[in-house]
From TrEMBL:
Major localization class: membrane
One GO BP: regulation of pH
Membrane topology annotation: Multi-pass membrane protein
Coiled coil: none
Positions of transmembrane segments: 20-45, 65-83, 103-123, 129-149, 161-182, 188-205, 312-330, 342-365, 377-400, 420-441
Gene of this entry: nhaA
Location of the protein in the cell: Cell inner membrane; Cell membrane
Keyword Transport found: yes
Name assigned to this protein: Na(+)/H(+) antiporter NhaA
InterPro entries in the cross-refs: Na/H_antiporter_dom_sf, NhaA
Amino acid sequence: MDSLYAIKKSIKNYASGGNVLIVATLLAFILANSPLADLYFSWWAQPASLQIGGFNLFSHGGESMTVMAFINDALMAIFFFAIGLEIKREVLVGELTSLKQALLPIVAAIGGMVVPVLLFMYVGRGSDFLRGSAIPMATDIAFSLGVLAMLGKRVPIALKIFLTTLAVVDDIGGILVIAIFYSSHIEVTYLLYAVGVFLALWIGGRAGVNSKMFYFILGGVVWFLFLNSGIHPTIAGVLVAFCVPAKPVLATSHFISTIRKEIVNFPQEQFADTDQSIMLSKEQLNCLKSIESASDKVISPLQDLEDTLHPVINYLIIPLFAFANAGIVLSGLELSSLFSEISLAIFLGLLLGKFLGIFLSSWIVIKLKIVSMPTHVTWKSLAAVSVLGGIGFTVSLFIANLSFGDMGPEGAVLLERAKLGIVAGSLASGIVGYFLLNLFLPKQVEEEVE
C-alpha cells in the first residue's frame, strides 16, 4: 500500500466526515436548548437491548445498557477498532515506519499531551476534578483536518502529514490513558475468557484468515467479555485491530497471472450484442467467480476493513457520538460557568497547552538538529497548525464522560462544565488556527512534487 496515497485518502475521508460532525454538534446544541430538550435527553436514558434467547448482549452488571452507554461503550469500540487499524497501518507501511521519519510528529504529540495535562493540573490544583486531567490531551483528527481542507491546496502535503501523524500518536496516548486509568475492578474469570478468545483471534490473524466476519464476531465476544471484566470495552477494539493481517492472502504477481489466465480461458460465446437477456454459461460464470475470489484475496484484511469502516465511522458513529454527548443546556448556565475552574482548565489546556506543547517540543528537536523541518513548512505555519492541535472534541468528550459520568449529581455538574470547556477550547483553537494559517500560508500555490 502506498503510504502517501493512504495518508491522502485518510485526510479526504476525515475532512469530509468533519462536515457531518459539525452538523451533528450544532443539532445537539439546538435540541438541548429547545422545547424538545426533555425528549432529547430522555432518549439517551432508554434501555438498549439485543436479546439472544433470554440473554441480553447489551447488559452489564445485570442491567441493560442505556442508549447513551451503548453509543459510548459499544459504537465507540468500533471507532477505536478503526483507530487500531490505522495505527497498525502507519507502523507497518506509513509515517511511523521509520523512527527518523516519524520522530518530529511523535515528539510534538508527546509534548502536546504532557503540557495540557500539566496546565490542567496546575489550574485545578487541590480541586476534586483532577481525575479529568487527561481531557485536554486529545486532538480531533476529523475537525482539525476539516479546517485544513478549508484552505485547499495552500496547505503543503507535509503539514497535513504532520498533523495526521500527530493525531494518530495522540490516539495511542489516549488509548493508553483509557486502559490504565479508566478500568475498574477486574473480574478475573471474564478476563481469562477474553484472553482465550483474543488468542484465537491472534492465531487466526497469523494464519491469514481473510473473513471479515471472523474478526467482527470474535471481536464482539472480546468486547462483551471486556465490558464485564472491568477493563474499558473500547480497548477491545484496539486489541482486535492489532490481530487483523496486514498482508494479502494472494500476492499481486499471482493475482495478475490468475486474471490473465481466466481472461484467456473465458469462453467467447456467440451471443448477439443486442441481446442482454442471455445468461452466462457455466464456464463463463466459473471464470468470473475465480476472478472475484482472486480480487478479494489480493486486498489485505486490514486495508479492506479500513475501507469498509471509514464511511461508517465518519458519517455515522462519530456524528452520533457528538449528537448524543454535545448537548449542553445553556439556559441554566451563567457566563461565570465558562470561568469555573474545570472549564477554564480545559479551555486553557486545549487552546494554550496544546499549542505550547506541540510547537515548543518541535522547536527543540529541530533546533538541536535531531530532525529537520518538513518540506514547504515554515515556523509560522508550524505554529498555526500547532494551534489546530487544540481541537480536542471527540476524544476529549469521551474522556470527560469516563471521568465524571459515574459520580452522581456532582459529576453531572462537572461533566456539563467540562463539555463547555471542551467546546469553547476546541472552537477557539479552530478559529485561531484557521486565521493564522490563512495569514501565514502562501497565497500562490506551487505544485508540489509528490
